[in-house]
Amino acid sequence: MKELAQIASAVQASSTMAIDALAKQMKAEGVDVVGFGAGEPDFNTPDHIKAAAVQAIDDNVTRYTPASGTVALKQAVCQRMKEDCGLDYKPSQVVVTSGAKHCVYIALRALVDPGDEVILPAPFWVSYLELIKMVGGVPVVVTAQESAGFKMTAEQLAAAITPRTKALILNNPSNPTGMVYSQEELAAIARVCVERDIYVISDEIYYGLLYDGVKSVSFASLGEDVKERTILINGVSKSYAMTGWRIGYLLSNEKIAKVMGNFLSHSTGSPSSVSQAASVAALNGPQDCVEEMRRAFEERRNYIVSRVNAIDGVSCIKPQGAFYIMMNMEKQLGRTLHGELIKTGDDFSAALLKHGLVATVPCSGFGAPSFVRWSYATNMENIKKGMDRLEEFLKG
After folding, report:
1. Hey, how many other C-beta atoms are within 10 angstroms of the C-beta on 287?
2. CB–CB of 178/322 below 8 Å?
């Protein structure tokens, strides 16, 4: 048989999905595993959003919609971005997709030709690297150290740009670090992007989950020349606990939006009509549900950070957004824990799952091999149980 496509064959499976699947399999077998793997809120979708979906079904809103989304949802997106971020977009500049991950792929499809370079600050969400490769792009990883708050500087960005650079992927707030760029830091990065004429795919899916009074600053808000070069990504998954509804959206200049819409028309077609109706209710409806979840996440963050930093041999810095911590486990490298030699973060996570019954995500796939990601998108009881098990596990 002939060989499979080289680009497709080079794509690696998502490490976050793999850990989550293994933990769920163990649970199904009756094993008492505590999961901190997948980035999925444990809250239920708010009732008024579910009611809108039921009403849409009753009203037979079950047919194809325009490939790039319904007018009603595009209008709701524009209104929400205006209220929350001070951004002015027209519905013709909005493209709705089947989840924010799909947004990243469509954005890369619109911008990147084979051989084009895409700058990717590390630690990065595991899918970014593979998505760049899936479109034939060349990832250029720029490592942001823990000592720098896991944030890439404008100077690092400028040094990484070459004549082949087409775009930067910027995730703010960040998965996996939870770090948030300040307006000054973003402005410095934006100046480089404008001066060197590169696009920015700004993934702001966690913008509603910020702590300690930190305010959201959208990259596209930093000036018209910046906005013109920005593809802004957002969605309903994280802020509204709607991961399974699979609705993400992009905002860009009209030329880029048209290209992305054309691509969708020949690939996935439209997102779910019922999910779009529910998303209209999420964006247009009361936002107190978002604040309730945000406050719960902040309480959980405070607890898990204090517990990790009280345990000898591991540590983490305090994130300002999203719902993850990056646990530094470098001091565990070379140790033998419960008969397992810990050479890498992957070894640590595997041993912790096997012997501690705690599922975490090793950050080798995130460009940070000495770290392990914990998601605190789970209830406080599980967090306390997980921390107790980690403490016991590290005793060897």
Report:
1. 16
2. yes
Statement to judge: residues 13 and 112 lie in one domain: no
pLDDT exceeds cutoff 80 at 195: yes
Q: What is the pLDDT of residues 149-173, one digit of tens each?
A: 999 999 999 999 999 999 999 999 9
Do 216 and 333 reside in the same domain of the chain? no
Inform me whether the pLDDT recorded for 362 exceeds 70.
Answer: yes
Residue 63 near residue 345, CB atoms below 8 Å: no
The crossing angle, in degrees rounded to 10, of helices 100-111 and 254-266 is 110
| Backbone dihedral region for residue 360 (phi beyond 0: left; psi -120 to 50: alpha; all else: beta) | beta
- Mean pLDDT calculated for residue range 297-322: 98
256 inside domain: yes
- What is the number of domains present in the chain? 2
Residues 276 and 299 in one domain: no
Q: How far is CA 204 from the centre of its chain?
A: 8
Where does residue 237 rank: exposed (0-12), middle (13-18), buried (19+ CB within 10 A)?
buried
CATH number at residue 112: 3.40.640.10
Cα dist. 229→216, 252, 312, 352, 363 in Å? 20, 8, 46, 43, 30
SS (H, E, C) 274-306: HHHHHHHHHHHCCCHHHHHHHHHHHHHHHHHHH
Whether residue 242 sits in one domain with residue 111: yes
CA proximity to 269, closest of 68, 72, 109, 73: 68
Q: CA-CA distance, 310 to 394, in Å (whole number)?
A: 13
Domain assignment present for residue 1? The answer is no
Q: What 3-state DSSP class applies to 152?
A: coil
CB-count exposure of residue 75 (10 Å: 0-12, 13-18, 19+) = middle
The last residue of a domain, from among 241, 268, 284: 284
pLDDT tens digit string along 82-93? 999 999 999 999
Pair of tokens at residue 9:
């064959």
Counting Cα atoms < 13 Å in the Cβ hemisphere of 37 gives 24
Predicted pLDDT at 15: 66
Identify residue 203 by its one-letter amino acid code: D
Same domain, 277 and 296: no
CATH of the domain at 21: 3.90.1150.10
